[in-house]
Amino acid sequence: MQPNQPSQVFLIDDNKQPLNPITPKQARNLLDKGKAAVFRQFPFTLILKRAIDNPTIYPLTLKIDPGARFTGIALLTGNTVIWVAQIEHRGQKIKDSLEHRSQMRRGRRSRKTRYRAARFDNRKRLKGWLPPSLMHRVQTVETWVKRLMRYCPVTEIWIEKVKFDMALILNSRHIRS
Q: Does this model's pTM top 0.70?
């Protein structure tokens, strides 16, 4: 996860209820006056030392731009971006690790050891199965969404869904008119 600019500081009250994010300058003032303490380093979150009754909370929109290698996350209030980050996925590393484990199993089976019965018939994929690399991508984004909802008042979540016809892009002479 890599934070980018602009970045505001998340704020929660004494009861761990999310409040509006604040600027770094306001956060420094709260820390200097002893009204808040650091709750988390990333995403940087402060916890107030007292509860707030009926806080004025403006709605935040969480926008997600999923990708194969990176996923972009942005928190907006209206059209103003207040926090952005980029998640780097480990999809290829997971695939490489599974291939390595598979090769090690094959190597063990080819050695002169005791007989092992074939196991090719007892494997079924459950309904809704996803490859481990894709499952990791889904779970990582889900984890970050839940984490951000814990520290700021998110009212909407938008996910960009785009499908590209790569054959059409690569072979432009097949463009239909």
A: yes
Answer for the pair 52, 90: CB distance below 8 angstroms, yes or no: no
From residue 58, alpha-carbon distances to 18, 61, 82, 127 in Å are 11, 10, 12, 40
Tell the residue number behind the tokens 């059409």, with chain if given.
Answer: 168
Task: Provide the 3-class DSSP secondary structure of residue 77.
Answer: strand
For residues 91 and 133, is the Cβ–Cβ distance under 8 A?
yes
| Helix 132-151, helix 91-110: angle, nearest 10 | 140
Sign of CA dihedral 99, 101, 105, 110: positive
Question: Based on the number of CB atoms within 10 Å of its own CB, is 39 exposed (0-12), middle (13-18) or buried (19 or more)?
Answer: middle
What tens-digit pLDDT sequence spans the chain (177 residues)?
554 455 899 999 999 999 999 999 999 999 999 999 999 998 999 999 988 888 888 999 999 999 888 999 999 998 899 999 999 888 777 888 888 988 887 777 777 666 767 777 777 888 888 888 888 889 999 999 999 999 999 999 999 887 766 677 777 665 555
